[in-house]
Structures are given as structure tokens and as C-alpha cells.
Amino acid sequence: MTDEPLLEVEGLRMRFDDFEALHGVSFSVPKGLLVGLIGPNGCGKSTMMKCINKLHTSWTGTVRVDGEDISRMRPADIARVVANVPAEVGSIYGMSVMDMVMLGRYPFVNRVWWESEDDEKVVREALRTFGLDQYRRKQVSLLSSGEKQRTLIAKAYVQNPKIMLVDEPTSHLDMKYKLEVMEYLQKMARSDMTVIVAEHDISLMARYCDLCIIMKKGSIVTIGDPKKVIDEDLIREVYEVESCVGTDREGEIYVLPKRYIKTREEGDEGSRGHDPAGGAPGAGPSSIFRRRRR
Amino acid sequence: MVEDSGRGPLKGAFSTLRKGFKGMSESMVPSEDDKSEVGVKKRRFRIILAAGLVFLFAMFLISISISSGGIIPITDAFSALVSAISKGGEDLTTEELYVFSSRLPRVVAAIGVGAGLAIAGCMFQALIRNPLVDPYITGVSSGAGCLAVAASTTLASLSFLAGYSAYIIPLAAIAGGLLAFGLTLAVAEGAGGSATNYILSGVIVGFAFSSVQTIFLSLNKDNLTNVMWWLYGSFGNITWENAFLVLIPSIGIAVIAMLWAREFNLFMSGEDQARLLGMNVRRFKAIMMVVASVLTSVCVAFVGVIGFVGLIVPHACRMMLGSDHRLIMPASIVLGGCLMLFADIIARVAISPLELPVGAITALIGTPVFAYMLVKRGREYDG
């Protein structure tokens, strides 16, 4: 973690008409980490990912990947350093697993029409890594949810990126597949790829992530080792939910939500009410690094 | 088991076809794990081209030997064609004249239109990512129809244009098709440019042009015969002058569009995903929409609105070959050409000497075949 930062974000702001979705977010992430992006719906997780991969283009601020300013890079060049794993497979008219994963080689295939042997080698290797080789001729639509998610991850993996952005990878998966997908993501982070995962399952994030970025209403509340930063106060502040944060016998954190706090009642400290414009005064930079474990 | 008893000839034929295809696909997919998948695709591509061209040539020979006037042996038709070509189209015998001047132009145009509509349908289905899409989705057919009717009922009656009458309807049709597409594009892009926007604006633009067309038709009831053939599709008016005006642009555009087959594959995985892999999605979509609409306009200009081919041929190819446009696009060209030739033969001989509208025949042949494929492969084809 002492390495040069791989991803640096400075003063990132994103505005949709009269709504500011990100209020000047700044953070940096070293390489080789699995980073969890945690926060309630609409807090700006997906927006931030879409700024980093330049799906949104009207943001202000600076995003650097490996020292290079992303706003000066062409989409094809960004595709060689940043890969994306969407939450779901779209409608794809019977595309096979092999064909789908092969799409990830698009930024590297310069020849007209056919991919080279090297591209195929990379793809087959990825299919083996993710346990998909036996399904390579099968249609993606016929796979189980877990296998579909692995196909999407494999497609991003063959881009050989420095950063992989993963959007809610386990939302449709059962317990076993959730763990399996997180283990694959962790394995990739260990192979020097920085993996940033936006996810709602905080216990899962706390177990696998090396670093977590907690967001609320377009700002970062705190950044740090999930085992150190996640506690009941933080959950109350970020989610407006009373919870029980405990530690199991292996030292892993689990979060049990208990009840949500009604907003604007009895001057409750953890609840600031819903501000449609975002950017409640207390959720700004002043609240960063404020919370501590009880 | 009841399975084998009482098999009708139709079911038997379908089953043989299916087994034939299955056998072909199995023999093309090696069982060993280390065989190159890209190599398999390249081999499939070559087989599609070779088999397709052979099949197309066979259909071509059958087509030039049949007309509403009668049937001559294929060998005679072929030798008449060769001798007519060697004579350079001059001093021809009656048979050579039949084959060279009467049948060959419409065969050439049928191949062009079939291939063009099929690949335009294939492109639109990928660009709009909706299974109901056909080449007429952007209102091209209604726009072309409207201006063709308008031209034939007004301009064609003007004496100073009499010498150009053969070109007035096609030119008006191309202009109408492109005008309708332009309007659809403007409305859809104004609404945000999503697939649904394109479908809805194509439908409303289509309705508007159809209404105008109906008004023109009701105002000029006496002049309907000039334009009826066009509204239902026919190769009857094709001559040497316009056959190549159909064939060259449609095959040319189809082959050029094929160069972007890999981009079509990427586009199918979703616009955002394609953009994130470095593709200029907006430009690609705009250019390909224009290309496919021009292609459709050229196809409808000389022979009228022929439905169904552009809808089912690409679907049939997807069901048989998967989702890779490097295989689907050439297969669509070949299958579209073959289906159109076959439909034209039926249109000419079914109630000879009268000629049926070819558009009705394409649908009649295509529906049962496609329904069968849908029942067999529809579940796998979903999503």
C-alpha cells in the first residue's frame, strides 16, 4: 500500500442539470488492492465509476490512472487500462460464452475481421481461470447467474486492464456464488490489478476488501481498512439504519441491519433527512474521517 | 414409439434439413479441446461462402430456365446465356433473347434486392437490438411508397417528363425513403436516440407517409395500375437499364457493411459496453443507419416494397449460426438472394401466364419455415 497510487481522483464533480451527484470527490488507490465502494442507493457510486471510465464526460476534476490524465485519453486507450463489469448481461441474441469473452479483446485487435491466435490464447486462458472453458460454446443466456457473472468478469479480465470497475456483481447471486465471485475478484487484485467493487452487501465487502470507500450523498464519508472503519455509528450515519456490527470467531466483521431511523425526528444525530439536491452540509468534507469504532 | 410412424413428407424434409445442418455444424466443430475456435469460424465462413454461392448459382440456373411462357432444360438455358453473352447481346435467337433480355435482368435484380434487404434487416436488428425490426423500421418503405405514388399520379402525366418515366418512380422512391429516414432520425435523436425512440418515431413517420399515400391513391383512382405493381413488389418492370442499378449498389453496400461485422458483434453487447471497449458508438450507429436506409431505398426503388425477407432471413441465420456477424452477414446475403430468386420463380409460374406479387410469395414461403425454426430453436434464442 506504500506504492505509487494507481488511481488518483481529485475534486471530481458531476452535475446532472440542477442536481450535483458528486461534490468534488478526492481519493487515491494504490495498485493490487480490492477496493469496496459502499453507500446507499443514489450516493454516487455508479456515477463515480462512470466518470472514471468516461461513460460520463461532463465531469470536472482530475482522474489519473497510472499517472496519466484520463480526460486526455481516447476511449480506445482507456479501454486498455480500465475494464468494466456491468451488473447484468444485456439482451444478446444467443451469443456464446467464447464470443462474449472475445469481445473484451476488441481494444487489442487491429486486424480486420479475425482475432489472432494470441487473442484466442488469452481468451482460452481466461475461460480456464474462471472455470468456463467447458461452456465456451454454450449460449450465455443459458448459463446460471453465477456463470453469467463469471463470463462478464472474464470479458473484463481479457482486456488486461490496470483497473477493473465492477458494478454490483453479486446482486442476483446466492451465498455460494457471492463468495465465489468475490474470491475471483480477490485473486485478480492479488495479480496486480486494482479491482473496485460497488456493492450493497457490507459484510461481504468487509470480508474481502483491502480498502473501502464509504460514500453518502455524493461525498466520501471515510476511506480505510473495512475492519477498522465499519461500525454501528458509521452505518447509522451513512444508511440511517440501526445495526449490530459484530466480529465472528475468525475476526471477520458482520453487519446485521435492525431498524431504519425515521428522518428528522427528535433531532437524531445520525439522521439528516433527505435533501433532494444532495450535499447536506454535514455530509461534506468536514465529516470525513470523523467516525471511530465504539 | 409413435415418433417414426405417420411422418409426413414435409416433416421428413424438415428433419432431413435439420439433420443435415446439425451434421454440418458438428463436423465443423472439432471435439478436441485445443482446436482453435477462430479457426472453426474461419472454416465455417468459407463453407457458407462456397455452399452459398453454389446454391445461389443453382437457383440462378433454374430461374433463367423458367418463365411464365414455359420451362426449358437448364442446360439449354445455360448454353443460350453463354452464347448470348459471347455475342455481346446482339443478333440473338429467340431463346437467347428470352434468357438474356427478359429473364436475366430480373434474376440479377432479385439477387440484389434479396441480398440487400436481408443485410439491411440484419444491420437494423443489430443497431436497434429488437427482434421485430425489419429494413422498413425507419419508415423507408412508407416514404418511398408515398413519393412513388405521388410521382406516378402527378409527375408522370406531365408530357415533358414522358421520356424519363422509367426513372421517375424509382427516383421519387429513393427520395421518399431517404426523406422518411431523415425525419425518423431527427425525431428519434431529438428524443434521446434510444432503440425505442427509433422504433416509435419510425412507426409514426411511416403512418404519416402512408396516410398521404392513401390520399394520393384515392384522388387518382384511374391511374392506379401504374403503381399497384410497385406497392406489392414485382420484378416485372426490371430491364437491363435498371437491373445493375439495383445489383451493384446493394451488393456493394452489403459487402462494405460486412467489413464492420466485428463492430456489429460489439454493438450487440450493449451501447455502453461497446463504448467502454473503445468504440465510437454514436458515429457507428449514425453511419450504419444511413447506410442501411440507403440500401433499403435502393432495393425498394425499382421493385417496390417486398416484405418479410429483411425480417426473417437474418433471424434464420442467427438461429443457425449463432451471434457472430462475420458469419451471419455473408449468410444473410446468400440466403436473402436465394429466397428472393425462389419467390420470384413461384411468382412467375404459380398461375402462369399471370404474375403474382413477389412480396406475397416471400411471406408465404417464409412463414412456415420460420415458424418451424422458431418452435425448434426459440427457447435457446431468447435473450
Description of the molecule:
- The complex is a heterodimer of chains A (294) and B (383).
- In chain A, a hairpin with a 2-residue loop joins strand 1 (5-16) and strand 2 (19-30).
- Chain A has 9 helices and 12 strands.
- Chain A has a single domain, classed as P-loop containing nucleotide triphosphate hydrolases (Rossmann fold).
- Chain A is α/β, with parallel strands linked by helices.
- In chain A, the strands form 3 sheets. Chain A has a 6-stranded mixed beta sheet with strand order 6-7-8-3-9-10, sandwiched between helices. A 4-stranded antiparallel beta sheet of chain A has the order 2-1-4-5, covered by helices on one side.
- Chain B is mostly helical and 383 residues long.
- Chain B has one domain: ABC transporter involved in vitamin B12 uptake, BtuC, CATH 1.10.3470.10.
- Chain B has 15 helices and 2 strands.
- Chain B has helices spanning 9-28, 37-65, 74-86, 94-128, 140-153, 165-190, 195-219, 225-232, 240-258, 261-268, 271-276, 281-303, 309-321, 325-349, 358-381; strands at residues 66-67, 70-71.
- In chain B, strand 1 and strand 2 form a beta hairpin.
- In chain B, helix 5 runs antiparallel to helix 8 and helix 13 (309-321) packs parallel to helix 15 (358-381).
- Chain B is globular and about 60 Å long.
- The A-B interface holds A 53, 55, 74-80, 83-84, 86, 90-96, 98-100, 103-104, 106-107, 109, 112-115, 117, 119-120, 124, 133, 136-137, 139, 141-142, 159 and B 29, 33, 36-38, 41-42, 129, 131, 259, 261-262, 265-266, 268-270, 272-273, 275-280, 318-319, 322-324, 326, 380-383.
